[in-house]
Write a structure and sequence with these properties.
The complex is a heterodimer of chains A (299) and B (256).
Chain A: E1 24-27, H1 33-39, E2 45-49, H2 59-68, E3 73-76, H3 90-103, E4 107-111, E5 114-117, E6 120-126, H4 132-149, E7 154-156, E8 163-164, H5 171-182, E9 185-189, H6 190-199, H7 204-210, E10 216-222, E11 225-228, E12 234-237, H8 246-259, E13 264-267, H9 275-291
Parallel strand pairs in A: 1-2, 1-13, 2-3, 3-4, 4-7, 7-9, 9-10, 10-13
Antiparallel strand pairs in A: 5-6, 11-12
Chain B: H1 3-11, E1 22-23, H2 30-52, H3 54-60, H4 62-75, H5 90-95, H6 106-121, H7 130-138, E2 147-150, E3 155-159, H8 163-169, H9 175-180, E4 188-195, E5 198-204, H10 206-216, H11 221-226, H12 233-242, E6 246-250
Antiparallel strand pairs in B: 2-6, 3-4, 4-5
Helix pairs in contact in B: 2-4, 3-4, 3-6, 6-8
The chains are: A alpha/beta (299), B alpha+beta (256).
């Protein structure tokens, strides 16, 4: 792990597992299970959505077990609702602990967002105002997650479409404070950063510089869709349904100039192409990483 | 009402106003931006239902299915983040969805597809090796007291409609020809079981479904066969064996 924060002990914590390699990874999709087992592509790691594997048995586990045996694995949660007002779902946390115990992933990450409220699950990553009470809640939830799982998690910066009048902090300051208080790492989603900064008319390079970059443990890259808001200004949608955009590749290059090579995932959840298309994007990430191979952390 | 509550309330109600307290950098109406979330929520839930109920979708067409699924999703959002289990209750909704009243078999097709989802993700278990099963079947005198443990994925559906034929027609190369051959007056029973990595959906006799149901409830072979309507016992046992549905066979007097 790159972060000094990562040395903060977790109560009941086990030995830290090995980290993901600083290589290109691909989100694992059932459409590609057979292809991956048949061809054993040279991919740095795979990432799965935790919730898809919270079932008793069957093909998903059968394939994941075989693929995991040969590749580093990241488990990425989409359902903990860390930013939510509901208490954390302890049953869900139990399922997560069981999944992590079974697959021993090199990394576990979740989102700075909420997805459940009043017992209903909305299956989307929803925004919260950046202020003291959200901060206290998010930190309490992350403390509980890390304690229950016995390991540090990475927290992903969000893609958002609206802002709140109630916010009193900049998003980057909010994230920096969460990392400082909980010792969690940062999953830097470069596409999310780009989408949010276009949507809210922020300087994305300044936003990146203000994040707690020493805590970065993984990077996400994905495609977005272009729409316009009610005034005709660009409104980017984090669709995960297209190739990584040129502007996001350029921002990724800039991000690596700040943090050096990092495990980098190509995320694709909609309009999923043949596996080699995603593998080529993962290789492109490694080409960018190679440009930053001599990166050294500034004193 | 706090921000999250207002946000959550508006997500599932297309007629609800955009929640208060939102802002945009350029002063544009936040309702258009909020609509992205509202759309994401409903579309993702409808997509999840479309994944689980492909034959229901094929039977009614994509537009009808998506409208029906959206109405279900708005009234019945998931209670768990494990979306594999989202759709329990969809068949009952379909049964009482007035625009689908002209398709009386639709709800049972949904029930069959839901059992397929359950079987797909059910716990793993190794079938009893054929040689062992043959050895246990060899002692004819002991057969009636034999108790079978069945695969955790095994499910049964008894329908007043030809659900298995309708489902199978949609797996055929020429779907409309296969559908044309379905007799809509037929009642059918289905046995659903995962064999290896695939889920089999097999048509069985009504009496055989009763028999397998009794086995599932722990009855011994003889007792289960006697208490069921007419069916071909050797053929049914053969079917269970071939589909890997028998995971243990315990003679009387032994605790499994």
């Amino acid at each position: 792990m790159t972060s000094a924060n990562m040395n903060r002990p977790i109560r009941g914590g086990a030995a830290a597992p090995a980290a993901l390699p600083a290589r290109g990874g691909v989100g694992l999709k059932p459409e590609h299970f057979r292809h991956i087992l048949d061809t054993r592509p040279a991919i740095g790691f795979f990432e799965v959505h935790a919730e898809n594997y919270m079932v008793a048995g069957g093909p998903f586990h059968r394939y994941l077990e075989r693929i995991r045996a040969d590749y580093p694995l990241s488990i990425h949660g989409v359902g903990l609702s860390i930013g939510g007002e509901d208490p954390l779902d302890e049953d869900h946390l139990d399922r997560l602990a069981a999944l992590l115990a079974r697959y021993q992933p090199e990394s576990f990450s979740e989102h700075l967002a909420w997805s459940s409220h009043g017992g209903a699950f909305f299956n989307d990553l929803l925004p919260a105002p950046w202020h003291a009470s959200t901060l206290a809640r998010v930190c309490a939830h992350i403390d509980r997650v890390q304690e229950r799982l016995g390991r540090h998690m990475l927290l992903e910066n969000p893609a958002t479409y609206v802002e709140f009048e109630a916010s009193t902090m900049a998003e980057s300051d909010f994230i920096a404070e969460v990392v400082k208080r909980t010792g969690c790492g940062l999953l830097l989603d470069v596409n999310n950063a780009y989408v949010s900064c276009i949507n809210h008319h922020r300087d994305v390079r300044a936003y990146l510089r203000a994040l707690p970059l020493a805590a970065v443990g993984e990077i996400h890259l994905a495609g977005h869709a272009r729409e316009v808001d009610a005034a005709g200004a660009p409104l980017l949608i984090d669709s995960h349904g297209a190739p990584v955009a040129e502007a996001v590749w350029a921002l990724y290059d800039f991000a690596l100039s700040l943090v050096g090579p990092q495990p980098t995932l190509i995320e694709r959840d909609n309009d999923i192409p043949e596996f080699p298309v995603l593998a080529a994007e993962a290789r492109q990430a490694e080409v960018v990483m190679a440009r930053h191979a001599s990166f050294e952390i500034a004193a | 009402m706090n921000t999250t509550q207002a946000f959550a309330d508006s997500l599932l109600r297309p007629e609800a106003p955009c929640p208060a307290g939102l802002k945009t950098w350029n002063g544009s109406d936040p309702a258009k931006r909020f609509a992205v979330y509202r759309n994401n929520v409903v579309v993702s839930l409808v997509d999840a239902l479309a994944d689980s109920f492909p034959v229901v979708q094929a039977l009614v067409g994509e537009d009808f299915f998506r409208a029906m699924a959206a109405e279900f999703a708005r009234g019945n959002p998931p209670r768990s983040p494990v979306l594999a289990w989202y759709g329990d209750g969809f068949a009952d909704f379909v049964e009482y969805f007035p625009p689908a009243a002209g398709l009386p078999y639709l709800a049972d097709v949904a029930r069959l597809e839901w059992l397929r989802v359950e079987a797909w993700h059910a716990a793993d278990a190794e079938p009893l090796p054929l040689a062992e099963m043959a050895a246990r079947l060899a002692d004819e005198a002991a057969l009636p007291a034999l108790r079978l443990a069945l695969h955790p994925s095994l499910r049964l559906l008894r329908s007043a409609h030809p659900v298995v034929s309708l489902w199978a027609a949609h797996q055929a190369e020429d779907v409309s020809a296969a559908l044309g051959a379905v007799d809509f007056a037929d009642a059918e029973a289905a046995l659903v079981v995962r064999d290896g990595l695939d889920v089999d959906i097999l048509r069985i006799e009504a009496g055989a479904a009763e028999f397998v149901d009794k086995l599932l409830r722990g009855a011994a072979l003889g007792e289960a066969a006697q208490a069921s309507g007419p069916f071909d016992l050797p053929a049914t046992l053969g079917l269970l064996l071939r589909s890997g549905a028998i995971i243990e066979a315990t003679p009387a007097g032994r605790v499994s």
